[in-house]
Amino acid sequence: MISYLQVEKLTKSYGEQVLFQDITFGINKDEKIALIAKNGTGKTSLLNIITGKDTADSGNISQKNDISIGYLEQNPIVDEQKTVMEQVFSSSNKIIETIKNYENALHLGNEELLQKNIELMDFYKAWDYELQIKQILTQLKINDLDQIVGQLSGGQKKRVAMANLLINEPDLLILDEPTNHLDLEMIEWLERYMQKTKSTLLMVTHDRYFLDRVCNQIIEIDNNTVFQYKGNYSFFLEKREERINSHNANVLKAQNLMRTELEWIKRMPQARGTKAKYRVDNFEKLKEKASNFLTQQKMEMEIQTRRLGKKILELYNISKSFDDLKIVDDFSYKFSRFEKIGIVGNNGSGKTTFLNLITENLIADSGHIEKGETVVFGYYKQGGIKIDEGKKVIEVIKDISESITLGNGRIMSALQFLEYFLFDAKMHYSQVNKLSGGEKRRLYLMTVLMQNPNFLILDEPTNDLDIMTLNVLEDYLLNFSGCLIIVSHDRFFMDKVVDNLFVFEGNGQIKNYPSNYSDYYSLKKEQEKEQKLQEKEIKPDKAKPQKDKAKKLSFKEKQEFETLEKEIQTLEIEKMEIENLLSSGSLNTSQIIEKSERISFIINILDEKEMRWLELSEIES
User: Fold this and answer.
1) pTM to 2 decimals?
2) Has residue 534 been placed in a domain?
3) Could you read off the pLDDT of 300-310 as tens digits, one per residue?
4) Are residues 170 and 38 in the same domain?
5) b/e burial code for range 244-279 (CB count within 10 A of at least 16 → b)
6) Which of 43, 258, 560, 575 is deepest in the core (most CB within 10 A)?
7) Residue 581: inside a domain, yes or no?
């Protein structure tokens, strides 16, 4: 196995806070590794040290001399003055530079420059590579290559940086929360891309489906120590449970031994002289070991919310547009008690606008909203709120309330609530400005929950939260007895918490699906498959013998399978012909543009047809 990178005895601290200590692990070729740890334990710091953007207090990192490393940061640094094309194609790779020049010549319509770059494209055999790049740009919805990077939103900048990274195809890909700011369609595409890529992968992500389907190894940082698991996320959960149980069993043994030693020390104070000093020293070591009991955060909470009346929230024919862009078109709905609704849709489809409409932070163009008298909203916004960075964590919470009321008359103090959301005692008096990004998001979430709302609205609550916090939040929401609306691209989170979906389909259309995300996704894919079959369905040959019906494939699938083989062969021939024409030098500018557009179309259609052919071939075999 080829070693790409070795981390040896690495330690990093910020002031008194130790992020990790003497950690050692390696990354080998073809491994797809996920890094899991609580917020504030140094995941991003570790990635920055590996990529040379930060330095460790001690330890060494060595890497294979000839490997290339690409790093996608949570908030990528891009050149605000460049165009999207310049940023996407920025590279020292000769082929990518050639493709950039070709695309630029194509865009300018300069025939002489175009001919020169076609010859270079041919020389470097860059045509297939160019089509692959166009696929990446299309899937990441990067269409306007002339736009200035500084004019893009944070999410758009991240997609541009990701495109640049994927186009360069480094040997080792290092990704810090790659699914943040991507819609579900893009996440699913990226998941498939990462499954197929030949690059070795080191990644931090809270998307557990992504983790489970892409990664074949998990590195966990816990209590300043590294633990490695050779398997996906499901395997990690099983083995982590075994590790904790084994550790706690050893702690229990230490506790029993400590009780024996304690009895001896109390009984024989005169023995603490010279001969038995080793037993006193041993007692102190046992005491330390016996107190090191690992617990997985689990506290049953039945949150006592404010009473909800019969009328909760009723929407009547709500519509909202911005100029010609329809966001919500004639939508009506009556909310019921205990509903947990998830909102899904592509970026820009109006999800956040809808939340602002129902909370009346934005006025609808038409229709009206009736809110029950007892409804108290708790609204967690994507942008967060401003928390005084100079305050201590405990002060931020106590400013809202000294306690939170649970079911059955129980009270949880502010300190206990902090610990429930994984702020341990030593963090209670830390200043907010010393928290990580994820810890600040967690604290903001707590300020919303502590106000005891009976109608919770959470807009992308999972961004920047670690998996441990997500587990706590999920348990909290499952026990929440009010109404709940969540906007999230985290499929695992949605499946676990919601039982109903509002699907934003674009052009103001919102459809209600009484299901979780995975059920909806399966239904959607089935509908798309049926629609495609109907579009290209060929009338069955009545003369065909009935014995075909006995095959594993249905009659229609058999015909589709045979047709696909012919269509794929025809498209491959056309693709090859266009490539030859593009490199022949015989086309004028308009013909080159026309053929370039056609070959891009062909490659997309081929991908779809080949995927369907593979599905059918598996059934046939």
Assistant:
1) 0.72
2) no
3) 455 666 778 88
4) yes
5) eeeeeeebeebeeebeebeeeeeeeeeeeeeeeeee
6) 43
7) yes
